[in-house]
Design a protein that fits this description.
mainly alpha, 3 helices
C-alpha cells in the first residue's frame, strides 16, 4: 500500500505546486493541463511521423540511439 500511496502523494504535491506557480508567480509557465494537451500525441503515439520536424518521441529516441548515423 505504501509503495502506491506515497508516490501518488508526491506526484499530487508536485502537480499542485506546478499549477499554483503557473497561475500566480510564473504566469508564462504552462500549467500541467496545458502541457499534457500540447504533448499528449508525442507520448501516446511515440512513433508517428508528420514530416522531418514533427515526429514522435519514440522515433526521435530511436534515431539518437542508432550507431554510425
Amino acid at each position: 500500500m505504501r509503495r502506491v500511496v506515497l508516490p501518488l502523494l508526491g506526484l499530487s504535491l508536485v502537480l499542485a505546486v506546478w499549477t499554483a506557480l503557473s497561475q500566480t508567480v510564473a504566469t508564462d509557465l504552462p500549467s500541467p493541463a496545458r502541457t499534457w494537451q500540447e504533448s499528449r500525441r508525442y507520448v501516446l503515439e511515440p512513433f508517428f511521423k508528420d514530416g522531418e520536424m514533427n515526429q514522435g518521441i519514440g522515433r526521435l529516441a530511436f534515431y539518437s540511439c542508432r550507431w554510425g548515423s
